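Q: I'm writing a short explainer about Response regulator transcription factor for a general audience and would like to include a description of its predicted shape. Could you first generate the structure from this sequence?
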Amino acid sequence: MILETQSEMAVIGTAGDGEQALRLALELRPDVLLLDVRMPGRDGLWTLAEIAKRGLIDAGDVHVLMLTTFDIGEYVDEALDQGASGFLLKSASYEELLAAVRAAATGNAALSPRVARRVIDGYVAGHREETGNYTDQERLSDLTPRELEILGLLGQGFNNAEIASRLVITEHTVKSHVSRLLAKTGCRDRGQAAALARRVRPQGSDP
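A: Of course. Here's the predicted structure. Afterward I'll give you a sentence or two in plain language.
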């Protein structure tokens, strides 16, 4: 309803879940795709990843804006890594939403103030690690309890399938958690994360 009040915008499709959103995106090739992070079945992050795999984001065919009512710390890193053009909270004003759509349509980034703050903090954290002024404990400070648990299991040498079985979650969920914890800790790969885990022994590590 908000978008259709604008003469230069047209809503060409709506979807109730991630798989339907993917099908419509491939069929209709919208200039901008608004994706809810949480949807029935496949979620918005899965949909974003599938669109990215097909090259639509790199080619500039589709610009994706992610929407969420939830804590941005759980999702923002993965969404931006996958090529999302923006990330907005559902509490954003009408003006912020319209501005974000316009920005995304022209290939520009659109971040809510809270998300922008997180991106800046991430840059600062990365700079601190590059200069060596970043302790192991500080690198863990932004991890959720689940991410700490998975980091501990990485330190014990478990692969994604083994972690999924141990925690009774899907491999896709494990992969998402690993991606986020790598971004948050500044680790380049699983090997660095495992080494960090062995040094600090977070929750999930054996004594």
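A: For your explainer, you could say: The first helix runs from residue 18 to 28.
Q: Perfect, that's easy to follow.
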